[in-house]
Amino acid sequence: MTRRGAIVAVLCVAAGIFQVFRAPASAQGTAPDLLFTNGKVVTVDERFTIAQAVAVKGDRIVAVGSTQEIAKLSGPGTRTIDLRGRTAIPGLIDNHLHLLRAGNTWELELRWDGVYSRKQAIEMLRERAKKVGAGGWVFNIGGWATAQFADDRKPFTREELDAIAPDNPVGLQESYYQIFLNSRGLKEFGIEAGKPDPPDFIPGSIQRDASSKPTGIIRGDIAATRPFAARMPKLPPDRLEASTLQLVQDVNRAGLTSVGVAGCDAGVLEIMQRWKAQGRLPVRVFCIGGAAPGPPDQVERSTSQIAKMKLFQGDSYIDDVVFGESVYTPLHDRMFATDSDPTPDQLAQWRRMAMEIAKARLPLHVHAELRDTIDAFLDQIEAVNKEYPVRNLRWALAHVNQIDASQLERMKKLGMYAAVHPWAVINGAIMHEGFGHGADDMPPLATIQQSGITWGLGSDGTAANQFLPMTALAFAVTGKMAGGLKVINQTIDREDALIAYTRKNAYFVFRENDLGSIQSGKLADLVVLDRD
Known about the structure:
The chain is of the alpha/beta class. It contains 17 helices and 22 strands.
């Protein structure tokens, strides 16, 4: 199913979200403004209660119960929506999504999130070429992998892309793993036989055959693919709002009502602030940001800025909530790297930053993927904890696909959280190429669940991964990546998976009293599913 398909219908009835479901300003008295009745309401409360109906007043849930009980609350101005037996769940929360960055290109991209047929992907490619016209770029920036195409998982070739879109440059970025270019795309980049690689590409990333002719493949990791993304067309300022609207509508259609956003792009955030003021913001945005230094000479400046950071100055729609996603940029595991070896000098700089973050009593959400990196970071955090206890600060390691039971126990003793972002949802086959059978437990979901640590599921979309929460939930329960390949052994049950994408993720955006379950007093963010 494509991202345009109606996977779920999202009913966000918090004030200002989707006006059609907002209570009228003239509503008076104590009767609810809105009732949802005759449904299967999966509350995801502590008892995982199943109800039939929900009553909403303003932007809050005021009652949950049977249809008969809730119907009695109706007043003259109350509107009733008959769910006709459909299942309602809490609004889904992604604790780590590069949402705002994607708005700059979303309208231009050929997105394959939720497309599991190579034949369908090719037809979409042809249609896109017709739409942009001769000479226009046909491209995407991640969010898919060839192994998700159940009918044919082979890579794209330059010759194949030439035949599909002969009049267009084509560039297809497979996650952060590789890029497929046709002949026109290669020409646009100045990549030719017998000529040196363009200087902005990492040496060796441009694949060539025995005669030095470029194959149309650029391979590496995020550093190798970055020049491609940098050169892709960007929207003019007057199209940014329309592209962002399309993006958040796709996010809503997928069932997401709140997101922890890694890197809140200022331009897109300004648009969302305006939507909020107009009462039409369709998603809650909780920003993950901070001054993570690069070279060592930047650390002093960054540590001085930490004490000045002000979090929680916003509201339940837009807020800055946590420092991240890096602490010290040189210690940031590259995607698809198979090992790491942090040096003492690097870790000393990491600890300087972490010490200041703890001293300032700031929450932390930090990228940590590989086992050696996780151990090294925990060594530093344990040292920091002796001077400035981190318990109750909600420090979290993010991604953690290679985490193990002993590391989880160390985190639990520190009062830390785990923000789990299974890259294998689309990259499972690629990870098996790099890690062999080690990828069978990346991530070890059952071990994480059994550890008793507070943890939540997220995507790390939209380039490293796809953004559809239902696909991630299916992966967590079945161990199968998008397209059906079995790629991990450790799975969890449906209840625990849904809890991780709702009630537990509310902790990561610091809104556990407002979001994550369908309960009286909480914000009325609901998702009505098109299938149970």
